[in-house]
């Protein structure tokens, strides 16, 4: 099945918002064996919406739109589609009750503008949206199909999974279409350059057969995305599973997870399995480590807190870094980062601690300590490991790479530590 996507919103064209809906749709539809031959973005203008939908229907006979179903004057998607197909808007009483009940649940009264959201093109099916007031809309016009979803990402994703994909798969089954999918799995690595990874797994890459391998570098490391193209679901899963296993065996500890795995979550799980607790001491990262850790659900079970010791006075007062150490070696040094990690361990009474200090730039570097020089330390069970790294990039990139490297240092240290 082919289905075009039209994302609607002037803010998307102005760059004020990222089009995350298009990314989510691409992934989910491909995994269901539905091809997106074209994706279009248009402004919140009825003529632009109508033209995009008309052209998509002429090419493929099926189109999915996101955006323009809200209660404000610039939300005109269903009006444009209704006009294009010659269908009047009619009030859907079930949708109206849902909107009214939702407002009452939050102690509010439904406004006349929200009542408009209960009007659907004649013959359309309302797709229940438990996360918002705008229903999704499924409209079949002979052999043609128009699906309209809200632009709010969480609402769009929910409707796609719960309402749209089941209907599309059923439609494909009725048409006798053989299910061929495009599926991907990702192996996540960190601490290894892209070129070194390519050399290391060259033999595996050459033997992938119908799979493709993409290298996706970022400040977090290099993701290896394996993709199966137009295979049956069972064959795609089998081949992807085999390839992932081969990559993980070859990469060993350089691989820290798959797909949406977060290194902070991996580290917290290692700490949790040992019944330990973790604290952080941060200078140049300014709280990034703490943010990464607290973004993981359940982090409070093992992460107790940290100190942002940006100035030397705070390093001395809060982490007991000796003044003599700072005078002799400077804030960006192995001696200082070790003292920070040990100070955090003592202050919080924990078994594990991470520390980071460095020069994030753009100024402040010297010949001996250039911009991008970072010292990281990981302490666990009475042992401290420290490493120096030289990172390239802008200030935020250096800071993000530093946080990732610190987490990875503790991960490796725990892997090599005594059994859990």
Describe the protein in words.
With about 425 residues, the chain is of the alpha/beta class. It folds into three domains: about 5-175, MoaB/Mog-like domain (Molybdenum Cofactor Biosythetic Enzyme, Chain A), CATH 3.40.980; about 180-260, 2-Layer Sandwich (Alpha-Beta Plaits), CATH 3.30.70; about 265-415, Maf protein (Alpha-Beta Complex). It has 16 helices and 17 strands. The longest helix is centred in the middle third of the chain and has 22 residues, at about 155-175. It is elongated, with a radius of gyration of 27 Å. The mean pLDDT is about 95.
Features:
single chain, 420 residues, alpha/beta, Molybdenum Cofactor Biosythetic Enzyme, Chain A, Alpha-Beta Plaits, Maf protein, 3 domains, six-stranded mixed sheet, five-stranded mixed sheet, 16 helices, elongated
> How is the CATH topology of the largest domain named?
Molybdenum Cofactor Biosythetic Enzyme, Chain A
**How many structural domains?**
3
The CATH architecture classification of the largest domain is 3-Layer(aba) Sandwich
Question: Spans of 5+ residues with little confidence (pLDDT < 50)?
Answer: none
Largest sheet: 6 strands, mixed
Helix content: 40-55%
Q: How many separate helices?
A: 16
CATH superfamily of the largest domain: MoaB/Mog-like domain
Secondary-structure content class: alpha/beta
Provide the CATH top-level class of the largest domain: Alpha Beta
Strand residue percentage: 15-25%
Head-to-tail CA distance between termini: 50 Å
């Amino acid at each position: 099945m082919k289905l075009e996507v039209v994302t609607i919103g002037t803010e998307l064209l102005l760059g004020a918002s990222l089009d995350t809906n298009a990314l989510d749709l691409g992934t989910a539809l491909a995994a269901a064996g539905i091809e997106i031959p074209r994706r279009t973005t248009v402004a919140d203008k009825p003529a632009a919406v109508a033209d995009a939908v008309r052209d998509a229907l002429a090419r493929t006979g099926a189109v999915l739109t996101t955006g323009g179903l809200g209660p404000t004057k610039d939300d005109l998607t269903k009006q444009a589609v209704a006009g294009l197909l010659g269908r009047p808007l009619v009030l859907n009483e079930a949708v109206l009750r849902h909107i009214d009940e939702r407002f009452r649940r939050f102690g509010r009264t439904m406004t006349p503008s929200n009542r408009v959201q209960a009007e659907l093109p004649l013959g359309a099916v309302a797709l229940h949206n438990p996360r918002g007031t705008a229903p999704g809309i499924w409209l079949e016009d002979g052999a043609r199909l128009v699906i309209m979803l809200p632009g709010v990402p969480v609402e769009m994703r929910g409707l796609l999974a719960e309402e749209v994909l089941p209907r599309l798969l059923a439609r494909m089954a009725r048409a006798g279409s053989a299910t061929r999918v495009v599926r991907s799995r990702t192996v996540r690595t960190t601490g290894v350059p892209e070129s070194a990874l390519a050399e290391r797994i060259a033999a595996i890459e050459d033997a992938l057969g119908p799979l493709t391998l993409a290298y996706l570098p970022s400040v977090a490391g290099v993701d290896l995305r394996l993709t199966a193209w137009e295979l049956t679901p069972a064959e795609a899963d089998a081949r992807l599973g085999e390839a992932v296993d081969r990559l993980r065996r070859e990469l060993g500890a350089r691989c820290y997870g798959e797909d949406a795995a977060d290194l902070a979550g991996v580290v917290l799980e290692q700490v949790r399995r040992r019944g330990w607790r973790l604290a952080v001491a941060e200078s140049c990262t300014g709280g990034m480590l703490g943010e990464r850790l607290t973004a993981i659900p359940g982090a409070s079970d093992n992460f107790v807190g940290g100190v942002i010791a940006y100035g030397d006075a705070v390093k001395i007062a809060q982490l007991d870094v000796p003044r003599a150490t700072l005078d002799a070696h400077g804030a960006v040094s192995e001696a200082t980062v070790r003292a920070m990690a040990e100070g955090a361990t003592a202050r919080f009474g924990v078994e594990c601690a991470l520390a980071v200090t460095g020069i994030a730039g753009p100024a402040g570097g010297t010949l001996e300590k250039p911009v991008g020089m970072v010292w990281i330390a990981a302490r666990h069970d009475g042992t401290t490991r420290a490493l120096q790294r030289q990172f390239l990039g802008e200030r935020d990139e250096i800071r993000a790479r530093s946080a990732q490297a610190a987490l990875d240092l503790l991960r490796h240290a725990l892997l090599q530590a005594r059994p859990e």
